[in-house]
Queue: 3 jobs
Job 1
Amino acid sequence: MSKQDKRGKPPIGANRAHPRRKVDPRRRTIGLHGWHRAGLPTFYSIREFCRTSSLGKTSAHELIRTGELKCYKIGRRVLIPKWAAIDYLMRLPRVKSSK
């Protein structure tokens, strides 16, 4: 028999589906944790790429669809290598100074 609280519900975490967990913001910066330490490529999720490049989600998906931004798909997750993000941003036209 499982223990129950005053309302007759089992305590949180006792054979119960957990609610959506909050992600520690320090761990959210790298798509696959630990790869950067092994010298292997690091990745951005779509959200991380949009945050770092100041682009919208729709624009990022359009860049991927047209092939301007390289990405990998693992299951439902889309990963953008950092080298591909840097390569895309470096290909953008430079702003001429107003002087």
Job 2
Amino acid sequence: MARVLRKCTLSGVKVYSDTNECLQEVPKSSVDFVTNSHGALPISRIAQVLKPGGVFVTEQVRATNNFSLSRFLSDDYQPAFPDNNLISALVNLQKQHLDIIKCDSAYTKLTFTDVGAIVYYATVILWEFPQFDVQQSMPRLHSL
């Protein structure tokens, strides 16, 4: 990462680290390009930091990603970010007067061939399996 940041600096590119996902350190109307992948989507702040004609590119995971598996493992599962869907994002982007050049949705199918893979997956994607407990889930896992 340090090497990439050094190359960017030498090329005159300013890179902002944004661990809080709110673009707090970025001055208004100061950037030509904002990227976001699977992070929080502070659309009003993105619109503020972009220069006129600036570009915003994002890739998001929809609220119901893995819903059936999450609900299978937990009867009371509710999506952590229920408004995270394409329609809501488009409405909010348009409210900020951002032009939509391209948008698309993909609904990929996950296939697990090993129960251990499901356990691993549920332990690393905490927002989709927030209360996952292997011991509590054993009866359901055995039913597979």
Job 3
Amino acid sequence: MINRLGQVVRYFFKRPVFYMLHEMSIGGMLFSPLLVIAPLAFILTAATRLLLHYLGLRRYIWKEAWFDVGVFVCYLAAIVYLFGD
């Protein structure tokens, strides 16, 4: 049992923890990848907000602004994780 647990722990810690985003070259100018990623996360956050409003679940959120910021950060982190090197 302990040996199997050690194998699982080694598998997950073998993966890279930090993901590097590389700049994009458009017309010879270098742009940050957050220029594309941040609006995408914002669109997903807005869609989530509209969906919650449509379903009537927004009234259960105590601090809506903090919730929106948290959802935005979660979407941003997920996009960086999925599209990072």
